[in-house]
């Protein structure tokens, strides 16, 4: 880039490729608004939750798509609906509970009342009030409740996971994920019923894309997360692969852990500290599961809204919920499978201590994202480098590449038309 | 046990094909008159907090003013969403100009 330190109005891409990323893509509120429209509300399926979170008719969960509040609710026929949390009458975001069970959805302001599919059922005093033998007020005679339901989103379910879209014309979910990534999606969600184990939630003061990039960046785990290296969960020479869908928007980092220990090479990353021991070694009481088919970790980014995690026995979804260009909520849903033994459930829960806002590993990511945002905000005319492994976009069989980040921005530029 | 018939209203106080609300021993009762015949149900809707006597009587059904749930005035049956619970009905008879209601 030139020495020009004036702040551009729009992000400036100074290369034909995406190996240098303008800081402005993280700092510009207008860009953020366009992203919400183009990446979250149109053309994409966004994660909303797990079927196991709402097992019974009437169960609901309030969540978001981008910055829009939505409700995932199971109706009396057992179907899952996703409706926008905005009353059709005066526009109030009426549902305030995070989870619950309800017979109907009611806005408290004027008690407009919707069924569990979002259809308008009742309007108080729709036909007016009777006074002195006369009927006064009420809605116009031509008011049609059928035209004033809650916004009903399209819903896709696969393997117990629920996605939704505001876009009527969004492509089928399987095409959206693409065959390459569907393979890894189905590996984790292979039809077994899921069992909800719990949540972590944190607010990270950084741009939401940084979290997608974090899980498309296999360069950092062995360098930032010294805990991983110390205890042998991640080493740069782990057998590993980086894969993408054909649009390069989704990706998977697939790795198979070495045996660790003093006889293994840690190859230039960090010394393996033999003298360091866990107070409670059960954190790494890993049990190989048949469904892994080899890989000990598959970290999958589904653009734009979710990360699907398998890190040894810990499995979770991580939902990205932007609020402004410089902040997002990160909601972890830890789960297991219905056929897990109590010991396996306990093991999954223990290993979940690696993750979440205070996790042995993930606490690091929250901080570096915050500090990256600080850097961008002070130097918005500058750009970052993503040239590791070359400037091309290609799948690799090693971890020393930023190809997935370049791929995501290639897709981003196409979608954003910049 | 003797039957507990209570006078609740004058017949002419109930307009034809309409509904009024009365209080009987602390119970809120809705009284309906259809083709000269009197019917009685609970007056408080089983769904929201509303009096059915503020609602609209049509084709033997009372529509709640709040959320348009409808009950059959003869059986008390909940006829549509958002209602999930029926309401109670009462036996009436007319003695001269007086409407009598059977309370148990």
UniProtKB/TrEMBL annotation, chain A:
Pfam family, one: Rieske
Entry keyword Ligase: no
InterPro entries associated with the record: AhdA1c-like_alpha_C (IPR043264), ARHD_Rieske_2Fe_2S (IPR015881), Rieske_2Fe-2S (IPR017941), Rieske_2Fe-2S_sf (IPR036922), Ring_hydroxy_dOase_asu_C_dom (IPR015879), Rng_hydr_dOase-A (IPR001663)
Entry keywords, A to Z: 2Fe-2S, Dioxygenase, Iron, Iron-sulfur, Metal-binding, NAD, Oxidoreductase
Entries under Gene3D superfamilies matching the protein: Naphthalene 1,2-dioxygenase Alpha Subunit, Chain A, domain 1, Rieske [2Fe-2S] iron-sulphur domain
Keyword Protein biosynthesis: no
Domain Rieske residue range list: 46-164
CDD domains in UniProt: RHO_alpha_C_ahdA1c-like
Family per similarity comment: Belongs to the bacterial ring-hydroxylating dioxygenase alpha subunit family.
Protein name: Biphenyl 2,3-dioxygenase
Automatic annotation (TrEMBL), chain B:
Assigned keywords, A-Z: 2Fe-2S, Iron, Iron-sulfur, Metal-binding
Cofactor(s) recorded in Swiss-Prot or TrEMBL: [2Fe-2S] cluster
Pfam families from the UniProt entry: Rieske
Domain of life: Bacteria
PROSITE patterns, alphabetized: RIESKE
InterPro entries recorded: Rieske_2Fe-2S (IPR017941), Rieske_2Fe-2S_sf (IPR036922)
Domain Rieske: start-end pairs: 5-101
PANTHER family, alphabetized: FERREDOXIN-RELATED (PTHR21496), RIESKE DOMAIN-CONTAINING PROTEIN (PTHR21496:SF0)
Protein family membership: Belongs to the bacterial ring-hydroxylating dioxygenase ferredoxin component family.
Name the record gives this protein: Ferredoxin
Organism, as annotated: Marinobacterium zhoushanense
Gene: ndoA
């Amino acid at each position: 880039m030139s020495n020009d330190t004036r702040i551009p109005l729009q992000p400036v891409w100074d290369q034909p490729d995406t190996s240098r990323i303008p800081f402005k893509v993280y700092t510009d509120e207008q860009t953020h608004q366009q992203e919400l429209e183009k990446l979250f509300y149109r053309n994409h399926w966004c994660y909303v939750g797990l079927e196991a979170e709402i097992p019974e008719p009437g169960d609901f969960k309030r969540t978001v798509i981008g910055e829009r509040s939505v409700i995932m609710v199971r109706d009396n026929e057992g179907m899952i609906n996703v409706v926008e949390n905005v009353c059709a009458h005066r526009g109030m975001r009426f549902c305030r509970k995070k989870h619950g069970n309800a017979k109907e959805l009611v806005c408290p302001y004027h008690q407009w009342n919707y069924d569990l599919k979002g259809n308008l059922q009742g309007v108080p005093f729709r036909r007016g009030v009777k006074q002195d033998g006369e009927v006064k007020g009420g809605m116009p005679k031509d008011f049609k409740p059928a035209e004033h339901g809650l916004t009903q989103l399209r819903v896709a379910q696969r393997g117990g996971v629920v996605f939704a879209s505001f876009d009527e014309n969004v492509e089928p979910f399987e095409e959206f994920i693409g065959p390459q990534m569907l393979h890894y999606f189905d590996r984790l969600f292979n039809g077994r019923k899921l069992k909800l184990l719990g949540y972590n939630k944190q607010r990270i003061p950084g741009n939401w894309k940084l979290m997608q990039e974090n899980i498309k960046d296999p360069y950092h785990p062995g360098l930032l997360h010294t805990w991983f290296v110390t205890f042998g969960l991640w080493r740069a020479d782990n057998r590993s692969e980086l894969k993408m869908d054909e649009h390069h928007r989704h990706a998977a980092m697939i790795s198979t852990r070495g045996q660790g220990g003093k006889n293994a090479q840690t190859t230039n990353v960090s010394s393996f500290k033999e003298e360091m021991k866990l107070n409670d070694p059960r954190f790494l009481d890993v049990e190989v599961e048949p469904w892994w088919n080899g890989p000990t970790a598959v970290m999958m980014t589904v653009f734009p809204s979710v990360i699907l995690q398998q890190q040894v026995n810990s499995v979770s979804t991580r939902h990205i919920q932007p609020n402004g260009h410089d902040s997002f909520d990160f909601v972890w849903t830890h789960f297991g499978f219905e056929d897990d033994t109590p010991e396996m459930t306990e093991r999954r829960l223990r290993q979940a201590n690696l993750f979440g806002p205070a996790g042995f590993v993930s606490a690091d990511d929250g901080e570096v994202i915050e500090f990256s945002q600080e850097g961008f905000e002070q130097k918005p005319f500058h750009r970052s480098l993503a040239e590791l492994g070359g400037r091309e976009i290609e799948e690799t069989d090693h971890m020393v590449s930023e190809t997935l980040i370049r791929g995501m921005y290639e897709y981003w530029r196409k979608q954003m038309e910049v | 046990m003797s039957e507990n018939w209570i006078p609740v209203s004058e017949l002419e106080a109930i307009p034809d094909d309409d509904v009024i609300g009365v209080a009987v021993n602390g119970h809120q009762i809705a009284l309906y008159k259809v083709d000269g015949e009197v019917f009685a149900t609970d007056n408080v809707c089983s769904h929201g907090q509303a009096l059915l006597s503020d609602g609209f009587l049509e084709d033997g059904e009372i529509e709640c003013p709040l959320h348009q749930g409808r009950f059959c005035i003869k059986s008390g049956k909940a006829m549509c969403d958002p209602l999930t619970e029926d309401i109670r009905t009462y036996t009436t008879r007319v003695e001269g100009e007086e409407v009598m209601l059977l309370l148990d």
